[in-house]
Amino acid sequence: MLVEQMERLQSGIFITFSGNCRAALTFYQTCFGGTLHFEMFEEPLQGYGETPVVSAALISERIVIYGSDLVHNEGRKVGNYVAVFVPCQDNADREELIGKLTSQRIKNKSGDTAHKFIEVTDLFNVRWVLGI
Question: Could you tell me which residues are beta bridge partners of residue 58?
Fold first, then answer.
């Protein structure tokens, strides 16, 4: 079981994907570093292009992200009520993370570095709030 593979139990976020969990967590590994763990079905399932991920985890020093391709019966719905919060050391750290998550640089046009939070959405429609 995935939890037994981890060195320690750790809370984190859980994101349900629709068939692209492996791609999403691999992408997040390029942003945050860390180690990936995947539990897969033994055979492909009808309705999935690839063998779906039952459960997965990206465990890094900065964040733990759990995920799965298995969605509830009502399907995956992107809402505006949940975002992932990541604390950043400073503006440079935050700008680097914005670039990794969004493949673009977002500069503070006003020059004001006092903005506590900046929100970005990645290519998997996951909202991130980056705070300093």
Answer: 36, 65
**What distance in Å separates the CA atoms of residue 20 and residue 81, rounded to the nearest whole number?**
22
d(CA 98, CA 48): 31
User: Rounded to an integer, what distance in angstroms lies between the CA atom of residue 75 and that of residue 29?
Assistant: 26
Per the confidence metrics, is the pTM higher than 0.85?
Answer: no
Half-sphere exposure of 117 (CA within 13 A, CB side): 9
H/E stretch holding 22 reads: helix 21-32
Give the pLDDT confidence of 8-44 residue by residue, as tens digits.
567 789 888 878 899 999 999 999 999 999 998 887 7
**What's the Cα-to-Cα distance from 129 to each of 12, 26, 71, 102, 105, rounded to whole Å?**
15, 20, 24, 13, 15
Are 103 and 58 within 8 A, CB to CB?
Answer: no
Question: Which is nearest to 71 in space by CA: 17, 1, 4?
Answer: 17
